[in-house]
From TrEMBL:
GO biological process: cell redox homeostasis; response to stress
GO cellular component entries: cytosol
Family affiliation: Belongs to the thioredoxin family.
Protein name: Thioredoxin
Residue span(s) of domain Thioredoxin: 17-144
Classification via Pfam families: Thioredoxin (PF00085), TPR_19 (PF14559), TPR_20 (PF14561)
Cited PROSITE patterns: THIOREDOXIN_1, THIOREDOXIN_2
Organism: Govanella unica
Amino acid sequence: MESMIGAAPGGQGSSGAHIKDADMQSFAKDVLDASMTVPVLVDFWAPWCGPCAQLTPALEKLVTEAKGAIKLVKINVDENQMLAQQLRIQSLPTVMAFKAGRPVDGFQGALPDSQLKQFITTLVGDLGPTPVEEILAAADQALAAGALEDAGGLYAAVLEADPENAKAYGKLALIQVRLGNLDDARETLAAVPQAHSNHADVSAARAALTLAEETATAGTPEPFLAVLAANPDDHQARYDLALALTKAGAFDDAADALLEIVRRDRAWNDDAARKQLVKMFEAFGHTSPFTLAARRKLSSLLFS
């Protein structure tokens, strides 16, 4: 291939230390020679190619984050038609991966970021978390620790860097619900891209918003506690207590109140207590510690 393409030095500018444009004359140096040290991706593109405009920035981002573990060379096929013919480029975008001076892998068309990262990982090994993934992990930790405002700021930062991140939309909206900022939660959920509208975290946030709206006028727990002290079998008072506790953020206590109704009268008010528990499970997510614990208690009551 080297004798076929030629080895004249050159180059047409750079988009970063590990990203550059190349042409027929510089291909051997920028791709073949460079791939003797690290893998080199060659992105064949054209100004008129819509998918190229999506793929190239995504490749540049991942190569930059790899910090020298891989390089990217961009070839404008309109300006290098002979090179494209020699390499049998038949559609755009096309990406070829070179190692040790030889092509070893490739693909055609624009791929999602997750597949691009996997493609690069197969060439260079695990790249570790991206900056967005690191922020997302920090946000998850803050949320788990109950630092809602800190977590919300981090999820918002994720969305600034990655406006397609469904998890960040869902978690941010959930935090806004828990902080009582229901209008903000509605705006966040309205901004979710249609492709991610059914993502688990988005669905959970939507359920949490619905739950918060339904309990907005629930009142405070004290009056219902007084009623129950006089009559523990007043299921409506216990149900209203569960709604008040939910509004106050005392979710475990709310679940216990609903479970107590199920224990005393499973079918009360057309199974209202169990149905309310299911709403809470949807709001917290089916794998959350809250849901797992409450669901186990509910199952033991229903199937005992």
